[in-house]
Amino acid sequence: MSDIIDANIEVHEALLAAGEYQKSPHRRPENIAKVARKINEQTYGDKVIKHLDIGCGDGFIFECYRNAKLQFGVDASSGMLREAQKKFPDIEFLLASAYGLPFSDCEFDLVTCYSFLDHLENRTQCYKEVLRVLRPGGKFFFGLSPNSRFISSGCGTV
Predict the structure, then answer these.
(1) How many CA atoms lie within 13 A of 128 on its CB side?
(2) For a pLDDT cut of 90, what percent of the chain falls above it?
(3) Domains assigned to the chain
(4) Model-level pTM?
């Protein structure tokens, strides 16, 4: 791993251990509902068979979207993956880098990344991996991290 990824893992696992990660503004019920609505609009609801969440953390996106028949999450943090597995025992979670996903070409109908892309040194490599694992016609849903206006507004939406 790189210094940047290692630092991200350290910070996120410390927040998780302190119970602060779970208090993030994006966890507000209205934001979960909005993300769920956006994913369902973009993916035509229940037509997704196979879904991958990159940078899944403790499984936030799976709180928003559970319509796929098979779901997978990858993250570079083993601590986050342990939390995700506790909440979602039916989902397969793998310790992996967004730069080299352990999946075959054209494997997924939907790939998601939420509040994750800003943690990367090389978004281009991540995008290449997304395009590689998406089947033709597949969908890529990404949401950016809440910014300071998001946090101070109290609105709790994406």
Answers:
(1) 7
(2) 39
(3) 3-153 (3.40.50.150)
(4) 0.82
